[in-house]
Amino acid sequence: MDFSAIDKNFAIKTELYRDDIAFFDAESEPFRIYGVKKENGIFRRMPQSVANAVSEGVSYLHELTSGGRVRFITDSPYVAIYTVQHRLSKMPHFSFIGCNAFDLYSDGKFVNSFRPPLDMTDHYEDDNDLPDPGKEHEITIHFPLYAGVIKLYIGLKEGSTLKPASDYAVEKPVVYYGSSITQGACACRPGTAYPAIIARTLSCNFSNLGFAGCAKGEPEMAEYIAGLDMSAFVYDYDHNADSPEHLKETHEAMFQTIRRAHPDLPILMLSMIYGQRNDDIEERLQVIKQTYQNAIDSGDKNVWFIDGRDLFTEELRNDAMADLCHPNDSGFLMMANAIGKVLQKMLSICTS
């Protein structure tokens, strides 16, 4: 498709130093948006009514766009964005770009982040040149991990081609449910959160249902996830369970709710990584292992388990953490490698 065939009347005021730029709404064809959906004027990771029913925390956090992506193919020599955002995060232990920026990938390789200014209020714009100008590239733009997004416009050189991206090899999403770590804390940028790394490595779509401090295995959340069409389910909310007793009350119950709806769905359970909370880590581990063992004993052949303490190599364990609780980029890479290897086995079963 040539841009000359597309309506160019978007009223985007830009201060970018390009005189050949045309902006287009990312919600229009042929752009393909994954991981988030527009509802009541903002992008969300799940329906607002369900989030409100789960908890006040999930009601707030589901509006933060972790796992959102927009994909397309173009031969434009650059890509720009103009975005309007409604919630920003500033934390002492977490990169400002990781919280609030968009990440640009070309053919699966990182190009640069679209960097918001530190004094941003509700919108910003930025652009990045692409390698090999004049050639078509498959573009993925990752949404912010801890910010809310109202609008996203994409700027390309006038006259460039624009095509829909190809399908993922696994188009039905892997659903991740868990804590702030699942949501992406403390990746230095959106593309280095472990679900995003796995998506690029295995070419698998995903949905991120990580909720910082607020993933507690609630029945409402379990019922919502049970209703999703997914290729695999990964759950890791050990960090957010208030106690081993809370985990015992909810962990197998969530598994059973999802298993009843999806008898053959590959499901991966994880326990918490070794960090600050080590006083009851063994007791928590046994709860999760018991859920796994009960499934095995019942003849379930589509369950997997990873001990979170094994995700990081011993010699780099502390260096893999941003704050002895959340992984940094090296920690997320180790998580992606370990979880990705198991998911590869799971997805081959799912798609055969």
Helix and strand pattern:
EEEEHHEEHEEEEEEEHHEHEHEHEH
Low-confidence stretches: 1-11
The total count of helices amounts to 9
Query: What best-fitting shape do the alpha-carbon axes yield?
Result: globular
Radius of gyration, rounded?
Answer: 20 Å
How far is the N terminus from the C terminus? Answer: 35 Å
Which class do the helix and strand fractions yield? alpha+beta
Beta content: 25-35%
User: How many discrete structural domains?
Assistant: 2
Write the layout of secondary structure elements.
Blueprint: E1 21-25, E2 32-34, E3 37-39, E4 42-44, H1 48-54, H2 56-61, E5 69-74, E6 78-87, H3 96-100, E7 102-106, E8 109-114, E9 123-129, E10 137-142, E11 148-157, E12 162-163, E13 170-178, H4 180-183, H5 194-202, E14 204-210, H6 219-226, E15 232-236, H7 244-261, E16 267-270, H8 281-297, E17 303-306, H9 329-351
Parallel strand pairs: 13-14, 13-15, 15-16, 16-17
Antiparallel strand pairs: 1-11, 2-5, 3-4, 5-10, 5-12, 6-9, 6-11, 7-8, 7-10
Helix pairs in contact: 1-6, 5-9, 6-7, 7-8
